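sry for the spam today, last one i promise. struct tokens for design, 186 residues
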């Protein structure tokens, strides 16, 4: 059986990654790679009634938790990104509704100057005195660091009137969180 030589560079456009004989690459890929930013914030106290934007977040730092990279900046409910890129944003809320047929709405809003709604959930539990959890997420291409995100909570009764739903928060407990992960450059 004859051996055939394979030309690994044939058909490849751009630079071919080159190893230096060890484990590190000398060209073609960023050494280390992987995620560079991940940051989670927690709601510090319960909120009853509609709130937009939610302002009572603090960075998760209990029980060995932390953040990776520079992390997000937060002021008066508005979060701004430390760098441009593709960012995964997730808002997860635990809540309690004492009324039957009440509906809660979670939303992620972007562009703090125009308050554009980019993700919204509608959750309903048919029985009163129920606890539940809802989560929404989005992938943002952040090209302008002047634009940030904020989060909102609204709730209504089945007839459209106000409801007394409570979004649950407690410093030191991840009951309601927002999570930011930079997945890559734009």
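last one done:
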């Amino acid at each position: 059986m004859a051996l055939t030589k394979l030309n690994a560079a044939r058909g490849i456009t751009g630079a071919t990654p080159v190893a230096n004989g060890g484990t590190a690459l000398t060209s073609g890929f960023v050494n280390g790679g992987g995620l560079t930013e991940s940051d989670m914030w927690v709601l510090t106290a319960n909120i009853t009634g509609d709130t937009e934007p939610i302002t009572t977040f603090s960075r998760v730092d209990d029980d060995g938790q932390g953040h990776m990279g520079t992390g997000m900046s937060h002021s008066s409910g508005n979060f701004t990104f430390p760098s441009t890129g593709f960012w995964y944003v997730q808002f997860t809320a635990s809540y309690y509704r004492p009324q039957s047929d009440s509906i809660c709405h979670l939303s992620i809003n972007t562009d703090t100057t125009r308050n554009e709604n980019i993700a919204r959930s509608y959750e309903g539990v048919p029985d009163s005195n129920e606890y539940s959890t809802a989560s929404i997420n989005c992938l943002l291409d952040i090209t302008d660091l002047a634009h940030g995100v904020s989060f909102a909570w609204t709730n209504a009764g089945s007839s459209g009137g106000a409801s007394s739903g409570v979004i649950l928060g407690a410093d030191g407990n991840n009951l309601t969180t927002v999570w930011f992960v930079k997945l890559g450059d734009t």
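The mean pLDDT is 78. ok im logging off now
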